[in-house]
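Morning run. Coffee first, then this:
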Amino acid sequence: MPATRPTTIQQRQEIMQLAQTGLSHQSIAQDVGVSVWTARKWARRTRAGDLAALVSHLGRPVAGTLADSPPLVRYVALRLKRQHPTWGAAYIVQKMQAHPSLRAQPLPHPVSVWRYWRRFGERLFAKRQAPEPKPPKAGVVHGVWQLDFKESVEVPGVGSTTFTQARDRVGCAPCCIRFTPRRAPITASLS
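And here it is:
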């Protein structure tokens, strides 16, 4: 099998110009000094006269989350997440639908947007806070108490009342309940 050498941009441009004049692939190949298959390949690629078709794209095609989406869609999805870190992907896609510059663009699925954000890791998502430690377990009765307060509860005939309740963590039975009615009504002065 003969060794092949890549064509240069100048050769591809010459093939395009000769193909536009109507020459056959055989005569183009002889004039430029390439094989018939190479002349046919570049003549077909540049049939519309597009100079961008002269550039070879080597390697694998662009892959990844939102690779097929327009750059503006990726930019807006990332910008909205940076401005509103607590918003989720579904809500941001909903906001993108109302975005004036994206009206004609096809929008991605929320899961794809979330996967796109995950590529940025800690640069986009802040580290989660450590959970609060659990209270110590009570080994004995009356070892740990839980206090609950309910303020400003309206009780008919009494008025606004505060309820205080103490509960043992082991037995979970209320040990002390206290009702404190408000002595005098609070009046707001507008002066």
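The two ends are 101 Å apart (CA to CA). Good start to the day.
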